[in-house]
Prior knowledge:
Two copies of one chain form a homodimer.
Chain A: H1 4-11, H2 15-30, E1 36-37, H3 49-61, H4 64-67, H5 77-91, E2 100-103, H6 105-117, E3 123-127, H7 133-140, E4 144-148, H8 159-165, E5 170-175, H9 188-205, E6 210-214, E7 237-242, E8 255-258, H10 266-279, H11 287-295, H12 303-319, E9 324-325, E10 332-336, H13 341-349, E11 353-354, E12 356-357, E13 366-370, H14 375-391
Amino acid sequence: MISEKMIKLAQNNSAIRAMFEEGNQMAALYGRENVYDFSLGNPNFPAPAAVKKAVTDIISSEDSVFVHGYMSNAGFESTREAVALSLNKRFGTAFGIGNIIMSVGAAGGLNVVLKTLLNPGDEVVTFSPYFVEYGNYVRNYDGVLVAVEPNLKDFQPDPDMLSSCITAKTKAVIINSPNNPTGVVYSADSIRKIAAVLEAKQKEYGTSIFIISDEPYRELAYDGVDVPYLTKFYKNTIVCYSWSKSLSLPGERIGYIVVPSEADEFRLVFDAACIATRVSGFVNAPSLQQLVVARCVNEMTDVNAYDNNRQLLYKGLTDSGFTCIYPQGAFYMWMKTPADDKEFSNAAKKFNILVVPGASFGCPGYVRIAYCVAKKTIERSLPSFKKLAEEYGLKS
Amino acid sequence: MISEKMIKLAQNNSAIRAMFEEGNQMAALYGRENVYDFSLGNPNFPAPAAVKKAVTDIISSEDSVFVHGYMSNAGFESTREAVALSLNKRFGTAFGIGNIIMSVGAAGGLNVVLKTLLNPGDEVVTFSPYFVEYGNYVRNYDGVLVAVEPNLKDFQPDPDMLSSCITAKTKAVIINSPNNPTGVVYSADSIRKIAAVLEAKQKEYGTSIFIISDEPYRELAYDGVDVPYLTKFYKNTIVCYSWSKSLSLPGERIGYIVVPSEADEFRLVFDAACIATRVSGFVNAPSLQQLVVARCVNEMTDVNAYDNNRQLLYKGLTDSGFTCIYPQGAFYMWMKTPADDKEFSNAAKKFNILVVPGASFGCPGYVRIAYCVAKKTIERSLPSFKKLAEEYGLKS
Lengths: 396, 396
């Protein structure tokens, strides 16, 4: 009766979201403090004080009709200018407001970009493990997601494996660095090699292949690691950003798209993306939050707190005998499982620990542990992780 | 290169939105007060004071992680409960939180519902004249929009004309009352007849045919006219609501979907709509605004001000010799044009008057005049309308 695509999706609902609901149920049963819910990338840290101040100032001093009203589908010009200036200052780019479209988070931005680019049957490549929704987003526009096999050595993208996945139908490659779920930051060297592969393939096929840089974790990087700005490496790069993590505003659905002027058919791509924003039903990014981020464009969440969590959790897990990728960015720990990852994540539930099986990211044999939680949650969870390790015969 | 669907759309961009941009250009040239921009449904009245108070209270008293954080894709339970209770109180319905999904405005809601329902080739019927985006929304899911010929007598929906448009492929009928662009409110008698047609057709074809009630203008009704609540007339009704007009929050993208428990395959439709909210990239309705509307669910914009505009404009236009439908709802005047509607709307620009040709709504020979503007704008525009009437030989 209803959409067959949606029936399939309803039967095969997101494991992550299901776990979110399960976590809430467990919290009701055992008390929130006794559930170690590492399942969702829902920042547990408050937005910076500047956000509260911005909301208060805007609401008390600006005209209601302006604050809550329509604007161009691309967003308020003042916000787009603030974004462009901030990027230019930080990354030496030369964007203007004509390169920026405000989006309903990165999820909204990715959908707008994919709707803009894809014809049915077009292929979109990404590196395993990858954010499970990419597949849904690509299928929304009858595209085909092609997942590059994971590079189990260090989870850096492998240019040769990428090359073997590119065909004449490849319209885009989604890159997510700092990476969800591995926490790996793609190095400048990796990016340069990816760019070289795509340049060569564009020539070989006479096509345009876009990099879609999904970068909600851009500012969450540790140990001073460099997170390369991709438009500087490859001109057909479209950036999708979100303040969900950097300002702890995931529920507000506020982000932006960057289309650089040097991209192929820039004018058409930019205009089509504005129209896609409208016809997809987003219309525009939420207006008040657009004004808030314009004032907070140089603000940041407490990265040190995430860093402390990262070190505490990494030490605790490895001390218990687990093997993890030491994450350089984002707020995820990517841990090898001593058994099937689904079985392991079920076993973890007995200890009130919620983690997401790697299979959900196209990479079995691992689990993702989201450490965007209170430090106390990590501290309290470590003895349970230890018991879990012991159950699998791991040695501390 | 890019999506062929989007190239077509970019070439044939929304006349309304184009006029919005044109209005801004004219305002820069002649001064905002000398441009009579009736092109867009962008409320010129501020949000009720309760909205400002709600934002301030929430931001100062609630926890940032809660206010700006993720919640279930369907939205905060507290908000969904407030919506259900308000509907039940006002319309004698019996909704619970399990019937409500918060949406990114009505545009987001309509897209979620159409994504949930449509298979490629499915038909969606609506009555001309209609909001031009319906066609885009339906085509997003490879459906076909079927427009019932306008009933030029009084613009009430004609059940016989509807009946002749229903086929075995009809999945839904979009009803928009109070209507954009005519301002007509569909009577209980009209709704009863539509319901009877659809009941009969469901039996004839053995299908489920949904009414999608797009009702952002529900509360904007004048002269005490009754706006029937459609779920009470037809069980397969899905409601898409927005606070864009009733609370003057169009830029905030906040609304809801109602799926009544008695709808066919309720469980599947509701769950699929939650998933569609997620995979379409909306993820959830903006969180702060969800909390705001929960506190303002019984607040209203200044309907009297719209009513005053309505009467002032109707009198002015008819005094100049124009023929208009006397609107019972929404904030649009639907005016017969003394010449081709596109030619007429171009002629109007010479007098700095911006109105949208009826052809944009599938009904040539009329223009839509959005009177959600300052009263002064109407007052100042009337002499120009008079001159325009004279140019076409109309007699006052």
